[in-house]
Specification:
Largest sheet: 7 strands, mixed
Mean pLDDT: 86
Distance between the termini: 75 Å
Radius of gyration: 33 Å
Shape: elongated
Strand content: 5-15%
Helix content: 40-55%
Amino acid sequence: MNYSIIVPTLNEVDNIDSLITRLLALPGFAEMGELIFVDDGSTDSTIEKLQRWCDQAPVRLVQRSGTPDLTRAVCDGVAVARHDAIVVMDADLSHPPERVADLLAPLAAGTHDIVVGSRYVAGGAVIDWPLHRRLLSRLAGLLAWPICDLSDPTSGFFAARRTFFERLSPQAAGYKVALELVVAADGTARIAEIPITFRDRVAGRSKLSIRADLLYLTRLVALAGSRLSAGDVGRCATVGLVGAALDGTVFWLLWHSGAEVAVAQIAGFVAAIAATILLHTGQFVAKSSPASGASIGRSLRFLLVALLGLALRCCVLAWAAPDFGLPIGFAIAGAILATGVVICLGSIFYVFTNPTAADGGETRWRVMSIGLIAYVFVLRLAYFGLPQLSGNEAYYWAYAQHPSLSYLDHPPMVAWLIWLGTHLVDHSELGVRLGAPVCWLIAVIFTFHLTRDLFGKSAAIRAALLMAVMPYFYRIGVSMTPDTPLVACWAAALFFLSRLLIFGDRRAWLGLALAFGLGLLSKYSIPLLALAAFVFLMVDANARRWLRRPEPYWAIVLAAVLFTPVLVWNAENGWASFLFQSIRRLEGEKASSGSVGAWGLLVVLAAPTVIAAIALSFFRPDIGAVSRGADGVARPGRRFLRIALLIPLGAFLALSFYSPVKPHWMGPPLLAGLPLAAEIMRIPALRTWRAARVLDWAWAPTIVILALVFGFGFPYWAIGLPLVPGPPGATKWREIASAVDGIEHQVEQQTGIIPWTVAMDSHALASELSFYDPDGEISDITTQHIFGRKGLMYAYWLPASEAVGRPLILVGEDPTLMSGAGIDEFLDTPQSIQEIATGQTKSRRRFYYRVARGLVISEVTTDSSKE
């Protein structure tokens, strides 16, 4: 294969002779290669030495004038090169000339378009580089990660076809040509990396400087799609500081004048946004920034960014509420800072974008996806400790107050995580939910790696975006239920299964055993994924070989060992948990139209666009791999994911004919559908497929709507929004628990005996009253199980026999459940039913109580309550 080697130079006189000698000695160079040096204005004897070489060897020299720039020097060299294959390397002997043939081999074979010599892939190395240079190199690579698939994006040693150099922007500049090349390809290049040993220069001085580093950062911003220059960014930052100062000033003036916090903070926000718009459209920015010209599209994008900033601001400021006690000064400062960061970054990467990025190119979608993932994660962190516990969350908190090897209705993982969180933080909603965002993040990481291995990095970023915006997975990250750790374990199990069954990585068996074992400690549904793996083993000949090896069986043993606590608890309690989740469930509630509604709600929780994409992925045209993943991996990967999706969902579908199913049960299997949806998401090769074009149109509005729902909808229902009437049915559990506590004290004063509070439901109301009890006393709050009704774990924690001789306070929403057959005969001297006064005049929920002298225990049968 004929090729041209381009070597930019700037004061490299001491390295020229050795470099040219080694290059000319390459096998076949005389017949196939040419050597072009592009000098960028050397002031030593580099030019003279190169001219002497030009006279005696096949060496060409191009001399540039003006400001030295490595990227422009390379482009000038490409312009005069004779061959289609271009090799670029430094002149300082850091790059081994002997690896040129290895760079060219994939191009010659037609398998790749760009091949980069990497220090950071397996087999690569760096020798004699000082620590600070290594750290800077790694940091530069990390900053480029969102827009580049290279492990070493700052490498200067690479080969590429000429056509990709022709795509470089006229504004391309700086010393990282490979990065510019890969980003300009916008996902269409087949890229490979080969390991090289990089050695620090022996002679001459490095051209790196603070100016070069700043230019690199500027180019990163531009490559990410921003139209703003470094100066524009500085001016925008100044405008932002002015807006923040105005925001804080308006807030303090109004608040100190007696205005409510909500009114003051909204007024400050509106004033800051108005000032920002005026300054951006006025002479302050417009004179020097053509990007600041007003347009309807840009205005709408800025409005969207401002709304997202406002949503985060409301969550941050909510921590100043009396229930949380954050000083108002810290709260408003944090709120203003959060708003400013969102608006600043949103303006740089979303509002003021390059015209070439406006069509939604691959790089821009990556940047927006990562931005939204980060935003939703930060929003989750600001929000997840604010809402009151749901009834189920409070019930699982009650689990943690009664440590055990397992529980009737669920394994113990959720209790262990809540116990850990409340001991690390305190008795609060934040402590209960502390593990939720961690579990979500673990699930995202494993889903990202699973998708990247099968379909490439672009699809992996999209899969992570789907996990960020799907309502079901958003809920997983802000609430603590058994599904929360289950999703993390399910995602880990999917990843390790793919490593085993698709890639044959035997080291993954340990990870798989841990994932399944911990998953069994989370919820009993994860064996459905094991069933799916077994089906795949049966249909895939390559994977079936594992059945003849010992690793799968050792993995089963290890998972069973991890599951031992549940086995021990069940053995001690008549296998109650297994019976509760199997035979008794089938014998209990029968299937109804509600099962159909559960499947419909699942579509809502997963987002209709995502469900449509997963469904369409089964019918994608057979165009081969649409990413860096080869068909040899992608095809069996699709088959594995489809089986991992359909088998568990099929099991729940079959169950729905006999017993009600709940939509959140079907959530974890959707993890297998996310890579399938991500693979066909905004792929140019699929746009001849009409269904894919419709999906492409639907993604942007879907994501925008969901982001606004997360920003405003969920906080509205959970904590309310400033200046907006609270949601109907909102319940202030602290007030209710305080009122009930007052009734308890009255009864105790009247009788001299501490009463039992009996919540007239199976678990939720008793758990809410326990968690929010002002005294922190939970040993005297129980459920209706003392009347022989369903009481779940409360029947184990507080047996009815312990109620003998204690006054009873029945509490519930439905007064009809506190009297009549099945209740009155068990009560000694019951009083009339009264409404609990809580002062919640805006709430539609009403709670009632009834006091009795005691329980007639002889009439109670407690066996049926333990279910």
